[in-house]
Amino acid sequence: MTNPLSTSSILLHCTISKWAAEVTDLKALKAVARAFSSDTNDDKYKKALFIGDPLKGIDRCAGRLRNHFYRWTLNWNEAGQGRLMPSRDFRQFAGEHKEHSTEFFKEVQLFIDDYDDHCQTAKEHKGDMYNPAEYPAVDVVQAKFDIQLITLPFPTTSDFRVDAPEQVIADLKDRIDSSILAVNGTVDTEINTRLDVRLGMLLKTLKIGKRFNKSLLTELGFICSMGRNIEATLTSNTINKIRIIETNILICNPDQIRNSQSLQDTLITICGKLL
Q1: d(C-alpha 90, C-alpha 102), whole Å
Q2: Across the chain, which distance is largest between two alpha carbons, in Å?
Q3: Which of 67, 80, 58 is nearest to 11 (CA)?
Q4: Does the model's pTM come out above 0.90?
Q5: Radius of gyration in angstroms for the set of CA atoms belonging to the chain, rounded to a whole number
Q6: Mean pLDDT per 10-residue section of the chain, whose length is 275 residues
Q7: CA distance 60 to 58
Q8: Which of 108, 115, 149, 257: CA 20 to 30 A from 98?
Q9: Are 233 and 180 in contact (CB under 8 A)?
C-alpha cells in the first residue's frame, strides 16, 4: 500500500532541554523527619537553587516553542514517534520556529551572564541550605539548554531489503499496510477534533453575544489549510466539512459578523449542523 502521507507530509520530533535548577536535599529531608518524628524514606524534597525565579524567561520561551510545535503538527502514532506536518507548511513553520529558538537562547544567555550573581545571592540568603557543590560550572549549565528539531522517515512496504521467507515478508507488509490505515484514521480524527473545538468556540461566542474575535476565523482557517495540505489522507466527510467551512464561514468578514444579527444566526445554524 502506498502511504499518501509519505508524499505530502514530514515527520518531526522536537526536544527542548532545560535545567530545572532543583536538587533533592537530604539535609532538609532529615530536618523534616526530626521536626515531625516522621519516616521520610519514601519522601523527596526538591530545593530550588536560586532566590526568585531567574529561569522564568527561559521557561516562557520553552512553553511558546512547545505550543508552536504542537499547533503546526498532528498526532499520527500512539507510540509518540514524532509528529506529522504537511510538507507545504514546513517553510513557514521553520521560520517561526527559528525566531522562537532565538528568543529561547537569548534568555539562556541572559541567565548565563548573571549566573555568578545568582549563585552569590543564593549563598547570601540560603544560609545552611546553601551547598556550593550543587552549583555546576557555568559551561556545564549552559550545555543543559538545547533545542533539537529532527526529521524521521516514514515506514513503507518498499523498505524491505531483507533475506527472509516470502511469507514472512508478506506478513510484515500486511502489518505496515494496517498501520498506514490506522495512521490515516488518527490524522483524520485529529483534524476533525481541532475543527470541532474551533467550531464549538465560534458557536458559543455567537450564541452568548460575546464580542466576535477574528482570531476564531484565523485558527479555523489554519486548520482547514492544514487539512487541505494532506487532503489525500482524509475521509470524504472531513473534506466536505472543510469545504463547507471554507465556503460558508471563512468567506465572512469579521466586521460583517459583528454588525449583522442575520449573519450571526446563519453561522449559528451552520456550526450547529457541522457539530
Answers
A1: 18
A2: 72
A3: 80
A4: no
A5: 26
A6: 70 93 72 56 73 96 97 80 88 95 98 96 89 94 95 60 48 51 80 96 89 88 95 93 96 90 94 95
A7: 5
A8: 115
A9: no
